[in-house]
UniProtKB/TrEMBL annotation, chains A, B:
<protein>
    <submittedName>
        <fullName>Quinone oxidoreductase 1</fullName>
        <ecNumber>1.6.5.5</ecNumber>
    </submittedName>
</protein>
<dbReference type="InterPro" id="IPR013149">
    <property type="entry name" value="ADH-like_C"/>
</dbReference>
<keyword id="KW-0521">NADP</keyword>
<dbReference type="InterPro" id="IPR011032">
    <property type="entry name" value="GroES-like_sf"/>
</dbReference>
<dbReference type="InterPro" id="IPR020843">
    <property type="entry name" value="ER"/>
</dbReference>
<dbReference type="Pfam" id="PF00107">
    <property type="entry name" value="ADH_zinc_N"/>
</dbReference>
<dbReference type="GO" id="GO:0003960">
    <property type="term" value="F:quinone reductase (NADPH) activity"/>
</dbReference>
<dbReference type="GO" id="GO:0070402">
    <property type="term" value="F:NADPH binding"/>
</dbReference>
<keyword id="KW-0560">Oxidoreductase</keyword>
<dbReference type="InterPro" id="IPR013154">
    <property type="entry name" value="ADH-like_N"/>
</dbReference>
<feature type="domain" description="Enoyl reductase (ER)">
    <location>
        <begin position="29"/>
        <end position="340"/>
    </location>
</feature>
<dbReference type="InterPro" id="IPR036291">
    <property type="entry name" value="NAD(P)-bd_dom_sf"/>
</dbReference>
<dbReference type="Pfam" id="PF08240">
    <property type="entry name" value="ADH_N"/>
</dbReference>
C-alpha cells in the first residue's frame, strides 16, 4: 500500500453543534464556516477504512451541515464534506475486504474535504472500473438515495408521490419511476415545471399553490392508489396529501424544506387504515439494509452510470486548497456539481 | 350440524355512518342507538363462518361504535356488538377447518349481539376446553390486544411506555410487562394511581398533569431506553413524549382519548433517528400477522385464562332480548364486564 503521511491538509469546520437557525443552503463566504488546516491523518477503527481522496463532490446537505442546520451536529476542527471517491489505503478490523479498492463513499467518521478520509466500511461502495472518478464521487447522495427510495415505493405498488419534484433528487426519482414502469405523481411549486416533469417521467404533476390541489390529488389518489409519499417538504400540506392517500400508505419524510409543523389531523388512519409515518436517511439505509437488497440497488445505479444513461453534470472544479476561498463563487453556477480534487 | 333457522333475533343499529361527534362511551338510553329486530340469518361467504352465539361481551368500543364515534362506520339495520364466543355452525369456502368448533371471535361481518353471527375465519380463535364461555367471550378485545401490543414492545427491547395506564387494557399491559420481565413506564392522570400501578407491575409511573412530567420522563427515557410507546391518548403531550424517546422509537397509537391534534415538532427525528409513527388495530393484526406469531400470542393468552392467572370480572348478565331496554343500567356497575346471552 501507499506510504501514509502523518499529517494532511483538510478543510475544517469552524462552527460547533447546531446554529439553531434554518436559512437554507446558500452561503456568501465559505470562510464564515470553514478554515484550512493541517491535522493528523486519522486511523481507521474497527469496521472502518482510510481512503485517499480522488474527488469529493459538493451537495446542498454539505452547506446545511457547515451552517449548523443539518440533522447532525458539527464538530469544530473536523473536516467538512460528506461525499467523494478514492482509494482504500488502510483498513480497521473487519474491513479488510475493501483494502486497495477504489470506492464511492459517504463520510461518517471524518469529512470528505481532506487528503484522507475515515469512514465505515458499510458507507463505501466498490466502483466498477468503467465508472469515472467524478461519477463515482457523486454516486451516492443523489443517485443511490433516489434508487433506494424508489425501491421502497416499488415494494408497495406502482404509483408513488414525490414532493419538491424539481430538485435533482426529485427529477431522478421521476426518471427512475418511469424506467421501472411505475407512476410517479409529482408535486411542484410552479406551473412551468409541469411539462418538463411529464417529459422526464411523471404520470401526474400537481402545483402545490393551486387552490384545488388537494381536490385534484384526492381524485388521482383514488385512481392510482399511491402507497408511498417521498416527501422533502414535510409541512401541513404534506399531512393533507398523506390523509388523502389510500390505506397502508407510508409518509416517508426525507427533508424539511418548510419550517411549518404539520399537525396530525387523522390519527385514526394510522389505527384503522394501517398508515405509517417514517423517515428516510441514506446513512441509515446503508448501515441497516440487508446486503442482498443493497447490492441490487447499488448494481442498478452503477449500471446506469456505466452505460451512460446517467452522468454527473459538473459545473466547476475546485482544488481542495481553494475550497475556503473559492466555494461560494463556484456554487454560483447551478447547472451541475462542484468537484473538489486534492 | 344444528338446524339453522331462516330468521333470528338481533339488536340492530338505528344510526348510519359517523355522527361527527366525540362524546365518549357513556349512554343514557340504548334505545337512542339500538332497536330489537328479526332479520335473516346471514350466510357465510368465502373465508367466513356462521357462529351460533353462546355469550357476547360489551366493550367501550361497542359504545363508541353505536354512537357513530368509532373508526368504522355504522350500518343501519345491521346487528351491533364486536366480541363474543359461540359455536361454528356453517362455513364458507376455505373456512371449513373451523366447522363445529367453539371459538372466541370478533365480528367483522355482522354484529355479535344476535342469535347468529357471521365473521372472517381469521377473526376466530378456537377455544381450549378448559376455558369458560365467559372468559372466551372477553378474550380478544382486551387480553389479546394487550398481549399483541406487549409482544410488539418486547420485540424492540425491555422498556416501553403506556398512556392511559389505568384502563383495563393499560393494567393488563403493566401486568404482562412485569410477567415477561419487561419494564412498563406508565402514564396516568391522577397521583392516586401511582401505587396501584406499581403493584401491578409498572417500573415507573408518571402523572401527566405534573408540570415536570416531561423532564422526569426524559430522565427515565435516557436510563431505560423505551423503544415503543403504546398510546391511547394521541395528543400533543404524546408527541413530546415520543420526541424524548431514544432513536428507533415507535409511537404506536391505538386510541384518541384527547381531541387535541398533535403537531410534529421533530420531523428530523424520523429521518435521522429512524423513529416511526404508526397505529395498532387488533382486527388488522389478526388479519395480517403470520400464523406462527399469532399462534404464539394466542396460546399465551389462553394459558393465562386456563390456569387462572387471568379471569374476566363480570358485573352483570343481560339476556340478548333485554339489551335495548337494559344496557344503560347494566353499564352503571363498572367493576367488570356486561355479558349478553341469547
Amino acid at each position: 500500500m501507499t506510504q501514509i503521511p502523518e499529517t494532511m491538509f483538510a478543510v475544517l469546520q469552524t462552527g460547533d453543534g447546531y446554529s439553531g437557525q434554518a436559512t437554507g443552503p446558500a452561503i456568501s463566504d465559505a470562510s464564515d464556516y470553514l478554515e484550512n488546516g493541517e491535522i493528523a491523518v486519522p486511523t481507521p477503527g474497527p469496521g472502518q477504512v482510510l481512503i485517499k481522496l480522488r474527488v469529493a463532490s459538493v451537495n446542498p446537505s454539505d452547506m446545511h451541515f457547515i451552517k449548523g442546520e443539518y440533522g447532525q451536529p458539527r464538530v469544530k476542527g473536523h473536516p467538512a464534506g460528506f461525499e467523494g471517491c478514492g482509494d482504500v489505503v488502510a483498513t480497521g478490523k473487519g474491513a479488510e475486504g475493501l483494502a486497495g479498492q477504489r470506492v464511492a463513499f459517504v463520510a461518517a467518521g471524518s469529512g470528505a474535504w481532506a487528503d484522507y478520509v475515515v469512514t465505515q466500511a458499510q458507507m463505501c461502495i466498490p466502483l466498477r472500473p468503467d465508472i469515472s472518478d467524478e461519477d463515482g464521487a457523486a454516486q451516492i447522495v443523489n443517485p443511490l438515495t433516489a434508487m433506494a427510495m424508489v425501491d421502497i415505493a416499488k415494494s408497495e405498488g406502482d404509483a408513488f408521490v414525490i414532493s419538491a419534484a424539481t430538485s435533482q433528487l426529485g427529477k431522478l426519482m421521476c426518471m427512475l419511476g418511469r424506467d421501472l414502469g411505475l407512476k410517479p405523481i409529482a408535486l411542484v411549486r410552479r406551473a412551468e415545471a409541469i411539462e418538463p416533469l411529464k417529459e422526464l417521467g411523471a404520470a401526474e404533476v400537481l402545483v402545490t399553490s393551486d387552490p384545488d390541489m388537494l381536490k385534484k390529488f384526492a381524485k388521482i389518489s383514488a385512481e392510482l392508489k399511491p402507497r408511498v409519499f417521498l416527501d422533502a417538504v414535510s409541512n401541513q400540506q404534506s399531512e393533507q396529501i398523506f390523509a388523502a392517500m389510500p390505506n397502508r400508505a407510508r409518509w416517508v419524510s426525507y427533508g424539511k424544506l418548510d419550517a411549518e409543523l404539520p399537525s396530525l389531523s387523522r390519527m385514526g388512519q394510522l389505527v384503522f387504515m394501517g398508515k405509517k409515518i417514517e423517515g428516510f436517511w441514506l446513512t441509515n439505509w446503508m448501515m441497516t439494509t440487508p446486503p442482498a437488497d443493497q447490492g441490487r440497488v447499488v448494481a442498478e445505479v452503477q449500471a446506469r452510470f456505466a452505460d451512460g444513461r446517467w452522468k454527473t453534470d459538473v459545473s466547476a472544479h475546485l482544488p481542495l486548497r481553494d475550497v475556503v476561498s473559492g466555494l461560494a463563487d463556484a456554487l454560483k453556477k447551478t447547472d451541475g456539481k462542484v468537484m473538489i480534487t486534492p
